[in-house]
Predict the 3D structure of the following.
Amino acid sequence: MGGGYNSTGGTYSHSGREAEDSGGAGQVLMDAISDDEVVEEQKPKKDEIEESYEDHAQKTQITDRQAKTISNRRDVIVDILSEDMEIEDSQLIGSYTRGTMTGPLKKDSDADVMIVLSAEEHRQWTEQKNGPQNCLRAIKRRIQNDPRFSQTEVTVDQNVVKVKYHDSTIEVAPAFRYSEVPHADHPSGGISGLFTDASDGYAIPDTHGRQSWQGTNPRQYKQMFEARDEAHNGKVSALTRTMKKWSENNDSGVRSYHMETMVYNYFEEKARRGEKVPDSHEEVTRDFVSTLPGRMKKGGAKEPVYDEKVSSGMGWRERRQAAKKAKQASKKLEEAKRLKEEGRTEEAKEKLKEVHGESFK
């Protein structure tokens, strides 16, 4: 044999150096390998489909240039509002900061900006009967009155002001520190609210149904999401983007944050049950999608900080339709697995394109 193998599967060259043992048999002098000899690692060939999944997850991210554009737009909006509003803090929140915003950007791609207002200077909005609505209208009016936004659609939508650019939407959420808003609704509501502390969070307007200020804590959720994503080598954010793209391509009706929450819950459930998360992007996608029909039928997806439902916007008919599409996707992923195991890689990839779209190469 012209080479030897070490315990990690790497190869080395011993340049034919051998020694006679007491029985006359030659042996390799392991400690005689000189420093200038090259140790080559034998690396297993990565399969094509896993590479395709990794490439697909990478391509679903927004570009650095797009991220810079979003950041600059935030700065412009904050500057406008700062002219006659007392702003204590402003921060990009949501999928943009968690690495789950999908690209390329389009008009309904949204980035969230939270504007933290001074409760002392703007207490009228926390005390007035229609304070939440008045706050949102004031922000909308200030943005619209700036000449730079004369041709831009600016609207109020439940708890944000939407600024619609040609390629994306900035959603501005005014906020106060939760502890500074009298009678702010606890985000989890009911008895469960007694067991979770919202004091370090914020209160944002909620004009859906009745006028109120609703607790939220994007910072805590971001910390929880990032910790779980890091523990799984980026698979949480990668799977989230992959599934958001699936939802877009298949018109599933599942909102972006709803899908993200279901993915997060999948990883959290695995950890709680002591179950192993599949190693590859291919396997973890197939495993998650197999659970998706059940998740859609239950309609009980909850965000992890306050255990608050995020699926209330979907009716049972919409959930049933989404579950049906998820079941079809699961069958196709299983078929792709079978084709791959039979060595029919190109056919498997074509089947995966039916699930993930033509951008899956």
User: Anything to note?
Assistant: Residues 59-216 form a domain with the Beta Polymerase; domain 2 fold (CATH 3.30.460.10).
